[in-house]
Specification:
2 copies of one chain form a homodimer.
Chain A (H helix, E strand, L loop, with lengths): L2 H16 L6 E7 L2 E6 L2 H6 L3 H9 L2 E6 L7 H11 L6 E7 L4 E6 L2 H5 L4 H10 L2 E6 L6 H12 L1 H15 L10 E7 L8 E5 L4 E4 L17 H5 L7 E3 L5 H4 L2 H6 L6 E3 L1 H20 L8 H9 L1 E3 L6 E4 L2 E7 L7 E7 L4 E5 L23 E5 L12 H17 L4 E4 L5 H14 L8 E3 L3 H10 L6 H9 L10 E3 L3 H10 L4 E4 L8 H9 L6 E4 L8 H6 L4 E5 L6 E5 L3 E4 L9 H9 L7 E5 L3 H15 L2 E3 L6 E4 L1
Parallel strand pairs in A: 2-3, 5-6, 9-10, 10-11, 11-12, 16-17, 17-26, 18-21, 18-22, 19-20, 19-21, 22-25, 26-27
Antiparallel strand pairs in A: 1-2, 4-5, 7-8, 7-28, 8-9, 13-14, 14-15, 15-16, 23-24
The structure holds zinc ion (ZN) (5 copies).
The site of one zinc ion has 4 residues of chain A, from loops.
Chain lengths: 640, 640
């Protein structure tokens, strides 16, 4: 009998002895980090309000109760009873009964009303029908990404349960080593921005944190092939943890499955969906640019299938000696500061991922309050001595000026923007500016992936800034649903019509003018002197965006029909509005550490160019007397 | 056709075109780092004195010429002709003809006379018979180790040639990576003394430097199992380099062959022999102490078979992007500072191994003059703030006092000493002291492995201090052959007789009184108040030597016959004579770096306890403004 089976037997016995005699436990299993308790008496279980919480705190495990399949009411009988329990205002859009696990997935416009105060409505459902309810939000804006992911996971339920069971046994395996150490190996993203990838290892466990590409430097991928990474086989990784969906962190995660990885990916639910969206786009772009994609969509699906979503603040066992907790990072939807608690009080490491320290319109500022942290691995994108950003108020004022000036001239405002994050921030600024009369009401057209990315945001309001979330939850004043927002979904004809029309604002990808619908918009608008091309995000060296921003006035045009390349002259006004950034600036990074609780003993400054990481490292050392490092790629640091 | 075959074809062509038309080249092969040129005209080749040197410098390769087997004179005809060429005074003791390679191995008491001025006699031999001569020294003192190694290698010639050919092709393989980095991974010996093991890696090549055990801490072995070491398989190592034979550097080399390693070990010839001796003793001790040995003698033989001996100063290709040069380290016979030249002028790393900076009686001081060195990995055994040693003159004076006092009382001097290094140094001190009349003539008995280790020293006089070597070479005044030295080879009876006799000196293992014949000597001499137990080397914490040194007066005795354990009272005088050490002291370590040419940019201080490595690291930083580190085990440093 394996040690895990022995453990489960012991748990079975303990749970039985803790429960009232009339509640029988038919089986006890691990599924991923959860302990699943099967009972023939789900209704009785539900009636004893606090039983699960008591068990969980006694066993120090996350516990899910499921009815034994034999004890289940038939779906056709249960459906009506379930609908009777849930208030009509909840807006249930789908009920899906899974007889294999006794779960009923309830998709509703207002999940809160399905849950009830402290979960009371959920318990009522079980008391009525015995089934275990699980609630998901009906996307307020239809999102093909969200529905594709949900449908795919529904299809793959059986395999997914196998994966979860295997992962569960792996997490709860017996510890084998009596050695003690904690190490971090840098596989990318050191003294550079891009290809984030780190290995956190103990004698017991090896965890890969992020696995991104390097934008603008295809081929510069993380050092996955060195012995300490996948040299000994991808199956030697215990877990992958993803801080957020940006491609410089997520692009190469699917390749792991090509290399034979078959374990879990821990991340937030919105990151899972955004990751799928961005990875598929990444494959698209590679194909369009005639590069061989490093993996195909099959591996993107594998990545999604292997994802175990965590909520901010959940403390989750991911290995016998490692507990993971994700916290809001304030950077993009679902972005997380990931905190690793190693051993039983042995050591704690936090990876900042990308962070924004102050609150933005979209997100609360990054969390920097932890039970313990000895070492912090910290982004340094704007860590340089002089990397101070315009503050958001001034940035918004300037943007409104540009819009008003352009409007007064009868022109259009064309804003290249990243689909995820920057665009939604812009939408919130524009919606409020129009509502408050700071700028005139006019259509705001959303082109490229922006609409889809926005739809994903509205599916996960819990991950947005608290007052924004409240607006979406309680007041039905979802700003993303404002009338002025128009999704460009009819292609060139629609663009032509808009180009021929009056003043408007166009938000479109790609953010650095390296391809996508912005190219078409430039073709339509280049000759309009009254219109304005407005940059609101960082333009990397070597991109067309950077060239146009610095005064270049030629736009290369690839005539789709004839296939001939030509150029047109840019006559538009070109403006740059600084101060919209998903990254903390120098002051924000310093503040993150200054107000961090507790103050870390060591900080590794990564995710910044050489001078930024070294500047930040030296500033943190001098101001706070912390041991700081600006690692190179391919180094290994040992703590303990 | 593989790239190596293409390379060899090109070389074949170039060599043919460089040679006079009447010399034909029948084949060109790599054997280890050497390029072997087979010719049907060996005699003509030999007649053109400088041809090989010219070819070598043109091709930048080490070149060996061998006769095509078809072109060979028969051994029975050749034997007499060879003997006629060599002067009688050379003292040839064996001629061994190898028809497979056309080599004749000549064992002689005076190899120099077989070689002749600038190799003239060797060339004469080839001119006469066509065979390629190779010369080895007849050990002046019979050494079973040396003759066992030589016989074993003779037996295994075929397999050894296969190994060399495979290694040769591996060394000269095409470089695959266009990435550039140099890394050092610490697998042991950091903030501790023992289990030396480092990996030097480039994108192309992975080299293991040393693989020792930790004396007094069985089971604390180098971290070979981590992914960056052997995790991806031992076959992923390209080469093993051994700095010297001490077990804290060599003990676990044979285990690599158990793990599937099948590549070369680069070290000096004396280190190869001493390594074999010490490893077999290591297995013996493990067996006696009832521990399961980590490998058996079969793997020790594998290690010897895979050794490619290098001479000090030879610049040797050991990988497509790495050249290795070994230099005298002054520590023990054959010990080397190993210098790695990486890429074509890309980077240079030196590993000090264990060093002695000043000259000793046995060895010249460590070499610290290199074409280039950017990073030095340096031992720190006596790197602590206060680790200054008595100087050698004072130490010798004190030793002579102890001997004279004991002699005057009619007692015996019992000196526990390490077989390799310290014992031979003692022998030289004693021989000179008697010759110059500083102490009376009396027998010096050598027990345990000391005699055998001494025999190995006399086999390799080229590795000894220059004036000592000259005495052995030119004057036949080999001090190790002095009459007073007596090899204890008749066991307990002989010891009893000596114990019953008059004043004498006894040098015996083990050096820290942890076992071996010293235990028997203590039983014989413990009660003699007139005799002296004299410590001349470091006694580690926890050893019986340390306890006796600090005043303990009970010696546990295991009565061989009855098997009963008992104790006897130590009545002997106990003296400690400091100042004999194979290691540089704090001053020596500082001087090694201070006078090093060129000064390294970075120094990693290893092979010392935590405070020694940190003290030395901080002193080097403050005095020379070098970037210094006191690494932990399991870290990886990247240079470049
Ligand atoms: Zn279903
Ligand atoms: Zn990001
Ligand atoms: Zn990033
Ligand atoms: Zn040594
Ligand atoms: Zn050593």
């Amino acid at each position: 009998m394996s040690s895990v089976d022995r453990q489960l037997d012991d748990l079975h016995e303990t749970i039985t002895s803790e429960l009232p005699a009339d509640i029988t436990v038919s089986d006890v299993k691990y599924e991923g980090p959860e302990l699943v308790v099967y009972t023939r008496d789900p209704k009785k279980f539900a009636r004893q309000g606090d039983l699960i919480r008591q068990l969980a705190s006694k066993l120090r495990k996350r516990i899910t109760v499921r009815p034994d399949p034999d004890a289940l009411e038939r779906p056709r009988d249960a459906r009506e009873k379930v609908m009777n329990v849930i208030p009509d205002e909840a807006g249930v859009t789908d009920l899906d009964f899974h007889e294999d696990t006794g779960e009923v997935v309830i998709e509703a416009e207002k999940p809160g009303m399905v849950i009830g105060r402290h979960g009371s409505t959920l318990r009522d459902i079980t008391k009525e029908v015995g089934w275990t309810p699980e609630v998901v939000r009906t996307p307020p804006i239809e999102s093909s990404t969200v529905s594709n992911v949900r449908n795919f996971l529904k299809q793959e339920r059986d395999e997914r349960r196998d994966i979860l069971e295997r992962v569960g046994r792996q997490i709860h395996r017996e510890e084998m080593s009596d050695d003690e150490y904690v190490r971090i190996t840098t596989l990318g993203c050191c003294r550079e921005v891009g290809r984030a990838a780190f290995i956190l290892s103990t004698p017991e466990t090896r965890i890969l944190i992020d696995c991104g590409d390097k934008p603008g430097a295809e081929g510069e991928v993380p050092y996955l092939q060195v012995p300490e990474a996948l040299g000994a086989g991808a199956q030697n990784l215990d877990a992958v943890v993803l801080t957020h969906a940006h491609l410089d962190h997520s692009a190469l995660i699917p390749i792991l499955f090509k290399y034979g990885y078959d374990g879990p990916i821990y991340t937030t639910e919105p990151t899972r969906d955004l990751m799928g969206l961005l990875q598929l786009d990444y494959l698209d772009v590679a194909a369009k640019e005639g590069r061989a994609p490093p993996y195909d969509s099959e591996q993107v699906r594998e990545a999604i299938k292997h994802t175990i979503p965590l909520e901010y603040g959940d403390v989750t066992d991911i290995a016998p000696d490692v507990k993971l907790t994700m916290h809001n990072a304030g950077h993009i939807l679902g972005s997380a500061v990931t905190h690793f608690h190693i051993g039983d009080g042995l050591y704690n490491v936090a990876f900042s991922g990308d962070i924004h320290y102050d609150d933005t319109r979209l997100f609360n500022g990054a969390v920097n309050d932890f039970p313990r942290v000895e070492t912090l691995v910290m982004e340094s994108t704007y860590g340089g001595r002089n990397d101070y950003q315009t503050d958001q108020d001034d940035a918004e004022k300037r943007l409104k000026e540009v819009i008003n000036d352009t409007y007064d001239r009868g022109g259009k405002v064309l804003i290249p923007a990243f689909a995820v994050g920057r665009s939604q921030e812009m939408m919130l600024v524009l919606e409020e500016a129009m509502r408050s009369g700071d700028i005139p009401e006019m259509p705001v057209h959303l082109d490229g992936m922006i609409w889809e990315a926005t739809a994903i945001h509205t599916t996960y309001p819990e991950y947005l800034r608290d007052d924004l979330r409240d607006r979406i939850f309680h007041e039905d004043k979802n700003p993303f649903l404002a009338d002025q927002f128009n999704h460009i979904d009819a292609g060139e004809d629609e663009r032509q019509e808009i180009a021929d029309g009056g003043p408007c604002i166009i938000l479109t990808t790609s953010g650095m003018v390296t391809g996508g619908p912005i190219m078409s918009w430039l073709r339509h608008l280049a000759s309009e002197e009254e219109s304005t091309l407005t940059f609101v995000g960082y333009q990397a060296q070597g991109t067309l965006g950077r060239r146009l921003q610095s005064g270049w006035d030629e736009v290369p045009i690839n005539d789709g029909e004839s296939g001939r390349a030509s150029k047109i002259n840019l006559k538009m006004d070109v403006e740059t509005v600084d101060g919209f950034s998903g990254h903390a600036d120098r002051q924000g990074l310093m503040n993150f550490v200054k107000t961090m609780n507790p103050r870390p003993e060591k900080v590794l400054c990564v995710h910044g160019d050489e001078s930024s990481t070294q500047d930040l490292s030296s500033a943190l050392y001098h101001e706070h007397n912390i041991r700081t490092f600006a690692p190179k790629n391919l180094e290994t640091f040992r703590f303990l």
